[in-house]
Amino acid sequence: MKVVTRFAPSPTGYLHIGGARTALFNWLFAKHHEGQFLLRIEDTDRRRSTSDAVDKIFSGLKWLGIECDEPPVFQSSNSTRHIEIAQKLLNQGKAYRCFCTQDDLTEMRKKARSEGKTRLYDRRCRDYKPTESELNNSSSIRIKMPTEGKTLINDIVQGDVKVSNDNLDDFIIIRPDGTPTYMLAVVVDDHDMGITHIIRGDDHLNNAFRQLHLFHACDWTVPKLAHIPLIHGSDGAKLSKRDGSLGVESYEKMGILKDAMNNYLLRLGWSHGNEEIISRDKAIEWFNLNSIGRSPSRFDTEKLLNLNTHYIRNSSNKELISYILPIIFQLMGSEISSIAIDRIERGMPGLKQRSKSLIELARSSLIYNTEMPILIQKDAAEHLNPKNISLLSCLHQNMKKMGKWDHDSLEEIVRETAEDNNIKLRQMAQPLRVALTGSTVSPSIFEVMEVFGKDETLNRLKTVTKV
RNA sequence: GUCCCCUUCGUCUAGUGGCCUAGGACAACGGCCUCUCACGCCGUAAACACGGGUUCGAGUCCCGUAGGGGACACCA
């Protein structure tokens, strides 16, 4: 049997971390079984659904590299089919018309609450035979649920979960205005789309009991269920703005690589022994539902960042350039020269070793910009005292005579100059770093000089020593 | 209030009755390396929520307690 999974978000906000992980798990599971991954937008609530949210979901998934194998389905466009099924259930006596108004229901619940009883629907219309004229009144359609016994779900993640049928009321499948509810729509769509495995957040576990009976009422086979635990914020409660409740696009803006995000999401609630760094290929090869944990996990930005440093270091220089160019443009407010871009690419090995995010990478790469004179940072300025400046002009003289201009020969000459002046290498290197980059922090200064080349290096030195 | 789920270092987790004096990773702390900052390397501290069972033996199975989370719509 071919595996078909789906990700079915409601377009009421952005694609948050939990949704992204659900999508990833569905996608991975489908790929692992060489099946299909589908996307369905659950927009049965027209008032709350926005096209902006739909766009955000699409772009979020695209960023993560999670692509669906069929065009996305919009649930609202299937409403004719949903209504047809409801009508059929009505005809078969498996559903019934309910004439209760909103007010009737709130009053019923209020009363139930004051009596300390359950606030489920009391089924007052279940056996009611409407008159001809009443049939013209607006009514909703409710599904008949079993009134006794228990319902058992065999969930791949949660195991056997049992609930007494007293807790299942006759829920509405068609609203008085004739539109189908979510509860009906999911079941019909999951069946029509041939979904074999429903993998979703365990906030849906309770719904699953209701949906199970709908599947039965329609005589459809029930897909396999896997309810995965939710992701909490770092405080253990709901996701806050601090951490994961942000849309995935904000992580992109924070300079997180999509591979890092995927890897992090994968390890949140799922594991494969002690493996931490997991490539997409390995993820597809290893992913299974049985290794999903049953307890909720917390979002930890530090670990995400750690993964990010790993993936940055392992990205190609060209790739990184393409990522940071737009960020540099934002920082500078203008394009940078092709000379600078070339330098950044050659300086990338040292740069990418030191960055936790693409933002950091973009910032630190600015030392290779061509703009002159360079800006000396506040805490760096003190290194350019008269004593150090004379040291630097001495170094300038020595370097002028150099033929070969590479890392090792540069290191040699700086060491020699330091030795001749009876100072330690660091006493020479720090002023040099400040003079060339304007900062006390940079990649290896020898690497920096090699990237700059002889002319630029001497030029920058001269600017500083002359002033 | 009712129903459902969860509980191993601060965090993510390994663990499927003896291999556990509980392993890895992130973070923290200390050291080494060192031209700065990082990286890297070495090391330290850190957990089976609690109470009862079952068993020769329990982190692992069962029951209870506590704590956390989720669900109880004409939302999805």
Can you tell me about this structure?
With 467 residues, this protein is mainly α. Helices cover 47% and strands 10% of the residues. It has 17 helices and twelve strands. A three-stranded parallel β-sheet has the order 1-2-3. The protein has a three-stranded antiparallel β-sheet with strand order 4-5-8. α5 crosses α6 (205-217), α11 (317-332) crosses α12 and α15 packs across α17. The mean pLDDT is 90. The structure holds one RNA strand of 76 nucleotides.
List keywords for this structure.
467 residues; three-stranded parallel beta sheet; three-stranded antiparallel beta sheet; RNA-binding
Number of helices: 17
The helix/strand class is mainly alpha
Arrangement of strands in the largest sheet:
1-2-3
Distance between the termini: 78 Å
Total strand segments: 12
What is the helix/strand order? Answer: EHEHEHEHEEEEHEHEEHHHEHHHHHHHH
Shape: elongated
Any low-confidence stretches, pLDDT <50, length ≥5? none
Strand content: 5-15%
The major sheet is characterized as:
3 strands, parallel
What is the residue-mean pLDDT, rounded to a whole number? 90
Please tell me how large the radius of gyration is: 32 Å
Task: Bin the helical content.
Answer: 40-55%
